[in-house]
Amino acid sequence: MNKKNIYYQHSGAIGPTAILLSIIFGLIASLFLGIIYGYIIYALPFIYANFIIVGLYGFGVGSAVGIGAKFGKARNEKVLGFIAFLVGILAFYFGWVSWLHAVTEQNVLNVDLVAVFSDLAPSKVFSMATSIAQKGAWGIFGWTPTGFSLYFIWGIEALMIIFLTVIAATVSIDDPFCERCNNWIKQDSDISPFSFIGDIDSYKSSIEKEGAEFVLNAKKQEEAESKFSEYKLFACNNCNSSQMLSVSNVEITLGSDNKEEFTKTEVIKYLLLNKEQFTSLKSPSSSDVIT
Q1: Which of 167, 180, 193, 276 shows its CA 20 to 30 Å from the CA of 225?
Q2: Is 60 exceeded by the pLDDT of residue 1?
Q3: pLDDT per residue over 110-142, tens digit each?
Q4: Burial (Cβ within 10 Å: 0-12, 13-18, ≥19) of residue 37
Q5: Which of 170, 10, 16 lies closest to 82, judged by CA?
């Protein structure tokens, strides 16, 4: 049985509205978050914390791109990823402009937005960056990176922002979509717990051979144990043509502070179901429950 026929996959559709909203949301986030990012990076005395700020910036911009894409009902991760890639480059650039302005003006508490945006000319930014690279901008453990070392660090910063922008954007449209109703599909119910799946590869192989009928043999537990499988059903609220199941293994352990810690491992994602299979899983008979 073909995997493409048993699991949900995006149709690949993406209209001009989704493209436009993704770009607009991404640019707005890049401009305003970029100013905040640049000045925080300049003012923050802890160099190690800068990586966290870089990550939050990339994630924030990517999430904005994703929100625009979801509003526009984009179902093409490759095209959205390319848009996010371009926005990520601009996000790095805008953040850089803000940081350079903070370095030269050194006035964190009184940010002149007009002055910041007037410094967007690439030639001016390149000239300032070259000058700073010769002297260095900050030090750690008595070492001040300059020249190639500083360019290398800036390169890592750029890659982090761009990478996280792409990841955050594409993850935003991870939900399934009902093409018939032109709506995103939400989780219908969590019907856990079920028996823990010991051999995930064998379980997935059985599904690929037998189809969704195989999961109907799963035994439901009355109460969750330290190991169980989490079954989540998804369905379109407007029609009966889009029903799915996602399964994860869950293990509960006690941490050092005696608090429960949950480890979740994805088993299958968005397995397509028909109406009868969906109903059977949602309302299992008493003989299917382990007591």
Answers
A1: 276
A2: no
A3: 555 566 566 666 777 777 777 776 675 655 655
A4: buried
A5: 170
